[in-house]
Design a protein that fits this description.
The complex is a heterodimer. Chain A is α/β, with parallel strands linked by helices. Chain A contains eight helices and nine strands. In chain A, the strands form two sheets. Chain A has a seven-stranded parallel sheet, with helices on both faces. Chain B is 44% helix and 18% strand. In chain B, the strands form two sheets. Chain B has a seven-stranded mixed sheet with strand order 6-2-1-7-8-10-9. Chain B has a three-stranded antiparallel sheet with strand order 3-5-4. The longest helix of chain B is centred in the N-terminal third of the chain and has 20 residues. Chain B is globular and about 70 Å long. Classes of the chains: A alpha/beta, B alpha/beta. Chains A and B meet through strand 5, strand 6 and helix 5 of A and helix 3 of B.
C-alpha cells in the first residue's frame, strides 16, 4: 500500500529527519549503525539534551564521536551555512535551533526555546518540510515531551512520509504518543524494525 | 476584457495553483520589498527559514491572520515597524556567554592588545549589551580600560536603549556571576554593579568607555579603525552573500593583524573571505586579519 503510494507519486526521498529526546541515545544505537555507507538519504537529527549535558560541549562531541565509531555513514555536527549531503548523518548542535534553508543548506538560530526545547524538533521538521516537501521522511522516537508533533503534521500536509516509534517499545512514550494524537502518522514501528523498514524502502525506490 | 480575464483564471487548474507554502513565500517577498522601499532595510539576504519563522511568531503576537495584513501597517506606521523590528531580531544574550571564549580573549588576545596606546573595539550586534559590559569588566581587570573605547552597535533601537542604560534584572546575577568566575575573574562580580530593588545597575566607570550607536551591518559603512571586532551569533541569520559582505566590512575596519571574534557555531569555512583571516583560537572562533585579500 505504502509502496504503491510512493510509486504513484514518483517520490524520491532525499532526507530523513529524526526527533528524539529522553532515552534517545539507546534508541539511536538501534537505528543509525544499521544504515549502509551509501544510504541515499541525508539523516538530520535533533536530540534533546539535558541541562547538565549542555553545560559542557564535550558531551556533544561524545554523542557524535560514538556514532562516528559505530556507523557506516559519515557522522558530523551540522554547521551553519553548510550544504546538506546525502549518505551523511547530521546532529543539531546543542543550544541552537537547527533549520533547513530552501537551497538545502543548514542555518542556526538562537530564538527562544520552542516546547521548552532548543534545539526544537518542530523547528527542524517545519523548515525541512518547507524545503523537501514530499521528498521528506519524518521520524519521532522516544521522549518525554510533545516536541515534534506539529512538525510531523506539517510533513504529512506536504505529502511526506511520517513514522513514529511504537510507544510500547519506547523508553519514554510521551513523545511518540503525542505525535500519534495528530492522526497524521503513516507507520507506527517497533524500535527494532525501524532501520530495516527504511533500508527496504530505499531499496524499493532504487528498484 | 472581463471575459478574457475569467478564462485566464479558469485555465489554472487546481494542480497549478500555488500551495500554502508558496503563498507565504510570495507574501514574505512582498513584505521584504515594502520594508526595503519604505525604510531602506534589506531583509532579502537573511537566512529565509529562520526569518519566516520569526515573522510567523510576529503575526501571532500582533494577532494578524497572514503576512499580507502586516504590509499596510508597516508602510504607514513607523512605530509599528519599530515593534516589528523588535520582534524579528533575536536578542538572546547574557554576560560572559560561553565563559571559555571570554577566558581565551582575556588570556590570549588582551596580552596582544596591550601593545597599543589606544584600543578600539567594535561590538557589532550588541543587542541588550550584556557582553559589552562583560568586555569592559575584563578590560578593567587587565588594566586596559582607561585607554579603550568600545563602540557598541545594533540595528534594533529598543535593544540599544537597554544596552545604554546598563540595568539588568537581579535574577540574572547568579548566572552572570558564575560565568564571570569561569572567565578567570580577578575580583568579585558584585564590584561592578549596584543592586537596587530587583535590578542591578552597572557602574558608570564602565559606561564611560562605551559609545552606543545605531548601525545596520547591511547598509552602513566602517567608521573607525578597530583592533578587535566582536560579532557573535549575528552572521548565522544572514545568507552567504550577506555574510561575505559583512566579513568584508570587518576586514576593512580592522587594523593590520586586528582580531575578529565570531559566535560559537560560526565558521569561515564556507565564506569567500576565509583567506582574509587566519584562526588564532579555532575552538573559540577567534580570527586575525591577514593583509592580502
Amino acid at each position: 500500500m505504502l509502496l504503491m503510494k510512493i510509486a504513484a507519486l514518483n517520490n524520491t526521498y532525499k532526507a530523513l529527519v529524526i526527533g528524539v529526546s529522553a532515552g534517545g541515545f539507546q534508541a539511536l544505537k538501534h537505528i543509525l549503525p544499521r544504515f549502509p555507507k551509501n544510504f541515499p538519504l541525508s539523516v538530520i537529527i535533533v536530540q534533546h539534551r539535558g541541562e547538565a549535558v549542555q553545560e559542557t560541549s564535550s558531551k556533544d562531541d561524545f554523542l557524535i564521536h560514538h556514532f562516528q565509531q559505530h556507523c557506516q555513514m559519515t557522522v558530523k555536527e551540522a554547521i551553519s551555512g553548510e550544504k546538506i549531503c546525502k549518505s551523511t548523518i547530521y546532529f543539531a548542535p546543542a543550544k541552537y535551533h537547527l533549520l533547513i534553508e530552501k537551497e538545502e543548506s543548514f542555518s542556526l538560530s538562537l530564538e527562544p526555546p520552542v516546547n521548552f526545547s532548543i534545539p526544537s524538533i518542530d523547528v527542524l521538521f517545519e523548515s525541512a518540510s518547507a524545503c523537501y516537501k514530499n521528498c521528506l521522511i519524518g521520524l519521532i522516537l522516544t521522549g518525554a515531551n510533545s516536541d515534534g508533533s506539529m512538525g510531523l503534521r506539517e510533513i504529512h500536509l506536504n505529502n511526506g512520509l511520517t513514522l513514529v516509534q511504537n510507544p510500547a517499545t519506547a523508553d519514554v512514550d510521551v513523545m511518540p504518543k503525542a505525535a500519534m494524537e495528530s492522526h497524521t502518522v503513516d507507520y507506527i514501528l517497533p524500535l527494532l524494525e525501524i532501520a530495516p523498514f527504511l533500508c527496504d524502502l530505499m531499496q524499493e525506490e532504487k528498484g | 476584457m472581463k471575459m478574457q480575464a475569467e478564462s485566464t483564471i479558469k485555465q489554472k487548474t487546481v494542480s497549478q495553483l500555488p500551495s500554502h507554502g508558496e503563498i507565504i513565500d510570495f507574501e514574505i517577498k512582498l513584505l521584504i520589498e515594502a520594508i526595503q522601499f519604505r525604510y531602506g532595510y534589506d531583509f532579502s539576504h537573511y537566512a529565509q527559514a529562520s526569518l519566516t519563522r520569526r515573522i510567523s511568531s510576529c503575526l501571532k503576537k500582533f494577532e494578524l491572520g497572514n503576512v499580507s495584513e502586516l504590509i499596510p501597517k508597516i508602510i504607514h506606521d513607523v512605530e509599528y515597524f519599530e515593534s516589528f523590528l523588535r520582534e524579528v531580531s533575536v536578542t538572546v544574550t547574557e554576560m560572559f556567554r560561553d565563559p571559555l571564549v571570554f577566558k581565551v580573549l582575556r588570556d590570549k588576545i588582551f596580552t596582544q592588545l596591550q601593545t597599543y596606546s589606544r584600543i578600539n573595539i567594535w561590538h557589532a550586534g550588541c543587542a541588550t549589551g550584556e557582553e559589552v559590559y562583560s568586555l569592559a569588566i575584563m578590560l578593567k581587570e587587565e588594566g586596559l580600560l582607561s585607554r579603550s573605547r568600545i563602540y557598541a552597535t545594533d540595528f534594533n533601537n529598543h535593544s540599544l536603549a537597554i544596552a545604554e542604560q546598563g540595568i539588568y534584572k537581579a535574577e540574572k546575577i547568579p548566572l552572570f556571576t558564575k560565568n564571570y568566575l569561569l572567565t578567570g575573574g580577578k575580583a568579585s562580580f558584585a564590584d561592578y554593579y549596584q543592586a537596587k530593588h530587583s535590578h542591578a545597575i552597572m557602574h558608570e566607570e564602565l559606561k564611560q568607555h562605551m559609545t552606543f550607536a545605531h548601525h545596520n551591518l547591511i547598509k552602513d559603512q566602517c567608521f573607525a579603525q578597530m583592533h578587535l571586532i566582536i560579532c557573535r551569533n549575528v552572521l548565522i541569520y544572514f545568507d552567504r552573500t550577506l555574510q561575505d559582505s559583512v566579513l568584508g566590512l570587518f576586514h576593512q575596519s580592522l587594523v593590520h593583524r586586528g582580531y575578529l571574534l565570531l559566535g560559537d557555531k560560526e565558521s569561515l569555512d564556507f565564506s569567500q573571505k576565509k583567506n582574509c583571516f587566519t584562526a588564532i583560537a579555532k575552538e573559540q572562533r577567534i580570527f586575525q586579519k591577514v593583509s592580502y585579500e
